[in-house]
Design goal:
The chain has 173 residues and is mainly beta. Helices cover 12% and strands 32% of the residues. The chain has two helices and ten strands. The strands form two sheets. The protein has an eight-stranded antiparallel β-barrel. A hairpin with a 2-residue loop joins strand 8 and strand 9. The radius of gyration is 15 Å and the shape is globular. The N terminus is likely disordered.
Amino acid sequence: MAQSSTQNCLIRFETSHGGFTVELFPKEAPVTVENFLGYVDERFFDDTIVHRIVPGFVIQGGGLDREFRSKQTRAPIRNEAENGLKNTRGTLSMARTGMVDSATSQFFVNLADNAFLDHSARDFGYAVFGRVSEGLEVIDKIAQVQTGRRKGYQDAPVEDVVIMSARRVDPAA
């Protein structure tokens, strides 16, 4: 049964290019963190791919299988971009469509400081809900994978970058 507690807010990702750990921010982004942990606990991210890489900008994943098919998600959540957190290098944010409250499972890691993605009067922005606390060099390694157009997606890696697993980590361990 899925846990709904947000007390353990470290997630370890194992990918085909190495592992990295993410610290989530439940105080600043409670809806987003609860949603994300639900996907982690359901093992939703297992065997998904990083389907978008834009060097100097972001890597994005969390919703497509190796055939570039969208996985079935839960309902979209409220956008918490107004939480005061900034889209700086190494932070995690929720991907969304042009609709403000459309985020489901897809997320991105900022490869640079991307202030234009922050909440502002111009644009509601993208909700930051965590940061890479260990393994940023793995994120940088993924960002170097060659990209092109693949199965209808631009900026897609030409070789699969697989998220093999995403699990909660016991911070006391």
